[in-house]
Amino acid sequence: MTLLDSIEQLIPSASHVQAARAQRAKAITATQTCENLLLAPELSGSGLDLSERLAVAQMVAISSGLPALAAHYSATLPSTPPRDDARWQVICHFTQLLATQPAAANRSALLALRDAGLSTSDVVLLAQLIGFATYHARVFAGVAALAALHPAPTTPTLIAAADASFIHPAHLPAPGEPLRLNGYTSETLGWEAWLPVLDPASATAEQNAVLDASHPKARTSDFYLLLAHQPQVLAARSEAFNAIMYAPGGLPRAERELVTTVVSRINGCVYCASVHAQRFEQLAKRNNVIAQIFADPDSAGTNARERAMVQASATLTRSPGNLGVQHLLPLRAAGLSDLEILDTIHACALFAWANRLMLNLGEAVWPVPQNL
Questions:
Q1: Is the Cβ–Cβ distance between 272 and 355 less than 8 Å?
Q2: Topology agreement, domain 3-148 and domain 173-365
Q3: Sign (positive or negative) of CA dihedral 310, 314, 243, 17
Q4: Does domain 173-365 have CATH number 1.20.1290.10?
Q5: Which residues share a beta bridge with 192?
Q6: In its keyword annotation, does this UniProt entry include Membrane (predicted)?
Q7: Residue 78: is its pLDDT beyond 70?
Q8: What is the pTM of this model?
């Protein structure tokens, strides 16, 4: 059974969810592509066999409080489990740490994987798999809760058209004076990998193509150059990211950035919080709610709509297994459509994945103070 099948079983009679998901077909397809790749029986360039990868995904589902999702993974586990040796124990420790305490892992936890015999490419694959599994858990939980929510008031369904005015975030205007509060900031930070990154001069044709498609600055970014050790996975993740964050219609782009800032603040990802706080300000032309998120994400929001998004995102981030219809009711009361709620779930889930990569493969680098 595929990821798509497992989610469809949750919503056989939830026509309002099916209608919303039909408008996000690109995100659903990209998600399935990620699962097909990460859990392929034979994954090119992988030092992690299928039983290990499935067991890792199952551990994440259990840690997320989602036994039904854990059963989805266990149903396809080979009869021979991973060998319980020192290498596997290190993998299990890293998996549990990322799944439950993403900000607690550090350089030593990452390097322990290398010491246990994993190559840089294998470590990148493991981090991507754990990140994907945390994303999957939150999509699974969010769609189940949305299926239990009463449909939005009947309105004509409009299929969103491509936005001709779309501007890639790399080309948005500069924000105003940056915020600095509680160790978080909206200014531009750097990011430095803890493992050797790909040298663009020695990249394969596939790696070059993926870097070019990933981001305008991918060739000078430690993040992309590290993930390019697994180019197919990077390409699939980029497809999912773009399909979720930049899809036309539904939740306004500024509010998707708001959700991702909340998730990043709760997970302790200073780098992601800085990027998406800045993008919110660029799109919304204000940063008052960002200051509230940096101060206290649980009470943030300048109006009922923002507070509902913040609180639902906080619950889904911290404990996906506890998310229920009661956490989505304030979103409906604040006027969010089914598609807007689905977009909120997708953005929140996506940054469970993104934060874990940024927090556990490297670290944020603050700008050097300028002496005046």
A1: yes
A2: yes
A3: negative
A4: yes
A5: 363
A6: no
A7: yes
A8: 0.91
Token pair for residue 195?
A: 């493992």
- DSSP per residue over 216-231, as a string? TTGGG-HHHHHHTTSH
What are the boundaries of each domain within the chain? 3-148, 173-365
pLDDT, tens digit (0-9, with 9 covering 90-100), for 87-126: 999 999 999 999 999 999 789 999 999 999 999 999 999 9
Q: What average pLDDT does the chain have? A: 91
Q: Is 180 helix (H, G, I), strand (E, B) or coil?
A: strand
Domain spanning 3-148, CATH architecture: Up-down Bundle (1.20)
Which tokens belong to 62? 């259990």
Tell me the two tokens of residue 258. Answer: 């708001």
pLDDT above 90: residue 9: no
SS (H, E, C) 296-308: CHHHCCCCHHHHH
Count of C-beta atoms within a 10 Å radius of residue 178: 15
Query: What is the tens place of the pLDDT at every residue in 281-326?
Result: 999 999 999 999 999 999 999 999 999 999 999 999 999 999 999 9
Backbone angles phi, psi at 85, to 5 degrees: -120, -175
